[in-house]
Amino acid sequence: MSLQQAGFPAIYAVNPKYTDVFGIPCYPRVSDIPGVVDYVIVGIPAESALELLDDCAVKGVRAVQFFTAGFGESGITERAELEQTMLDKARQGGFRIIGPNCIGLFVPKSRLVNAGSGPMEPGPVAFISQSGGHASFFPADGGPRGLRFSKVVSYGNGLDIDDSELFHYFASDPETEIIAAYIEGVKDGERFKAALREAASRKPVVIYKGGTTGAGLRAARGHTASLTSSVDVFKALCRQVGAIQVDDFDELIDVLVALRFASPRPQGTGVALVGAGGGPSVLASDEIEKVGLYMPPISRETKEELLQFLPLAGSILTNPIDAPTLATSQAIGPTMRVLSRLPEVHILIYHLGFHPIGGLGGGRFASPDFLEPTIDAMKKVWQESGKPIVLAVRPGLSMEAMKEFLAIQEAFVNAGFPVFHSLRQAAVAMSRLVAWSETRRSVPGES
Amino acid sequence: MSLQQAGFPAIYAVNPKYTDVFGIPCYPRVSDIPGVVDYVIVGIPAESALELLDDCAVKGVRAVQFFTAGFGESGITERAELEQTMLDKARQGGFRIIGPNCIGLFVPKSRLVNAGSGPMEPGPVAFISQSGGHASFFPADGGPRGLRFSKVVSYGNGLDIDDSELFHYFASDPETEIIAAYIEGVKDGERFKAALREAASRKPVVIYKGGTTGAGLRAARGHTASLTSSVDVFKALCRQVGAIQVDDFDELIDVLVALRFASPRPQGTGVALVGAGGGPSVLASDEIEKVGLYMPPISRETKEELLQFLPLAGSILTNPIDAPTLATSQAIGPTMRVLSRLPEVHILIYHLGFHPIGGLGGGRFASPDFLEPTIDAMKKVWQESGKPIVLAVRPGLSMEAMKEFLAIQEAFVNAGFPVFHSLRQAAVAMSRLVAWSETRRSVPGES
Question: How would CATH label the architecture of B13-98?
Fold first, then answer.
């Protein structure tokens, strides 16, 4: 079966030395290709870029993506000038440039993939990334958490198509419901602000800004030739337009998971925490309140209600609710039901496997005897209460624990739950979601 | 082979219903045991505690550890009073109580283990833990990072033997060089302060204080009946006596790894960061400078030196040093050597596998072709420079990545390197170490 028969667009290789590459027909120049050429992916040395672009203009291609690096980001003046000449050629030739110094596009619907891998089933999340590494790994990192993607765009030095244009595009892209971005620096502040404002007024926008310290800024400059802007200015801008700013790449994925699966959106900051383990419960409570969420203490009546099916010895019944039996399926449903009915509780968090070694790994939590009734019970409470329920499960650091973790994650993700890899991550993501939802509610006509 | 022949102390079971348990001889009461009894581990209901203690006094035992919970921490007045009667009985009977509501001791040298598991080879780290979960998992969590343990003590409600007594004990225990502690609350502030001061003046002390928020405090009270003290007071106390306070359990392990293996102690805050990946390098730089470490920019001359063996295209040569070839063994040694000679660099960090999916998993970094020459080269630079070298390697979230991660971790740990599971964790731990070392240097006669 040819690649075309497998649903991929026609692919041609270009190299003067070969006539075929991995069975793909190969031509000396782009202009020698017999069919129509929409999209050119470039991996030749920077020195040959201009000649190639002339050829692309002749052929009438629509877009050229430069994987090739060593342009403006190298800090060499001639290379920065070369970039400008490339841009002139694109304008004259009537085509667009993506990059240079980028990994290109991941568009599952078109079966167009870059260096990375990820779910080929399309979905509502778009990602704009100044880093090729982040762009190529993003679908693979987000996929197992249930995220699916419309378009992932790595734009590198952003010579022609840049962040602003991409925000503008995704604001009205019907296939995109949530916009994520990794930004190192912004070249035209006013244009960026307008595009970000447009996007954030129409869809949830989550931004991870890299380069927030002296060394980070220097690295960003060397990475994608970014004229990085002041950290405080960027933060103020996000707040002003209603975009969610996150502190690192993992948090970007976490907040997307919260936006996508913590539904309905939480109506307040009240968290009920359920799980087994005293030390972990203390730590978890601290993590939750540190980020501005609130764990309302439960009343004597609620405690009495819980004691009908939870033991006294070895338990903490104050919110957090920790009991040895909360690692069994029978106790989880009734416990969550009682807590979900409290008006001061807006979010329920269940945690599993706090310790990296030994927290998981016995295989018990991956067994259908545990997973199926637990998930069924939690889904019922979710539906009855209309309050988001979140799982925090720690990937353990052994082969056995990883196997168990992957089975737990898959089952909860398939059931539609937001899954986080630590209590801290769950708390941070949910606090971002709550803060953002509150901003939305204050805007008339938004939800 | 009997347990005794296998090196374990004589073990007897006590239960009126059986004559043997798993092949271990079983007696109706402690006083029926024919041999000498040093240590009693109790798992009977709280209601029978007093009767048991009377029997222990008759038998002349030395210590009684109560796994049994449901005492003061339950919030029930009669149960708190029961605890006090137990203490009276211990004082009269001339024996000590550990707990109640605790998991007991892990002492590899005596082959005494609690609910957890861990390396049975003894080592210099002691752990004092108010949480049984933390105490039982601590050796398992720290073991693969190279930590070895003298004594791990879970003391639960701390009825008789408490945190203060344990700090005092470990301050002069010849088998202990580093003292770690998990504390939820302190009952006698002045006594605790004196014991902590004594310990911290003689050995590095690292404390994770649980219960730093409203909910955390409440949970701690329900967990181990702790009268938790003000967070600020605790922080001030640690600073005053020179103990290192950490923010969570993972950070506790991380700082112990830094104390144990980042040698010689760093002489300043200057970090050189080496690894492949632009996005990760930007993030890593931010993580490092956020915690108060400093990444000195490199000079034009150093950059020229690096360009003798690193490529220009796709690289960031500013500190961070990111180059595609820095994921190959050949480039790592010379790069690290150049950086280690800079007087403004005090710590070298090498990072691998930033992304949870795809960062590791190809198996390449676990192959001896990569690991052996890389570790050899890094060890040489370490020895020549006398500056600590640190590995940050991210455990990936797939079976393949976990396998690769475990092989990498094992090889670096066996070679004596401090290994951290993320750049953030490496940065935080090293910054704690630097801050603590500076305090030490300011005290005459300390190193």
Answer: 3-Layer(aba) Sandwich (3.40)
Write out the H or E segment, with its range, that includes residue B409.
helix B399-414
Give CATH 3.40.50.261 domain extents, chain B. 119-261, 271-441
Work out whether the CA dihedral A81, A86, A92, A95 comes out positive or negative. negative
**Pairwise CB contact (< 8 Å): A356 & B212:** no
d(CA A38, CA A10): 10
Task: Tell me where in chain B the CATH 3.40.50.720 domain(s) lie.
Answer: 13-98
CA distance B141 to B122: 15
Quick check: A220 and B282 CB within 8 A? yes
| CATH classification code of A104-261 | 3.40.50.261
A264 touches chain B (CB under 8 A): no
Q: Is the ipTM of this complex over 0.90?
A: no
Q: Write the pLDDT tens digit of every residue in A126-169.
A: 999 988 888 988 999 999 999 999 999 999 899 999 999 999 99
Of B133, B278, B280, the CB nearest to A280: B133
Q: What is the pTM of this model?
A: 0.90
* Calpha distance A443→A440 (Å, rounded): 5
Within 8 A of B279 by CB-CB distance, chain A residues are 129, 131-134, 182, 210, 223, 249
**Average pLDDT rounded to a whole number, residues B142-146:** 97
C-alpha closest to that of A64 among A100, A115, A110: A100
Test B219 with A320 for CB contact under 8 angstroms.
yes
Q: Measure CA A390 to chain center.
A: 17
What is the fold of A271-441?
Rossmann fold (3.40.50)
Q: Does B240 touch chain A (CB under 8 A)?
A: no
Which CATH code fits B119-261?
Answer: 3.40.50.261
pLDDT, tens digit (0-9, with 9 covering 90-100), for A269-288: 999 999 877 777 888 888 89
B428 SS3 class? helix
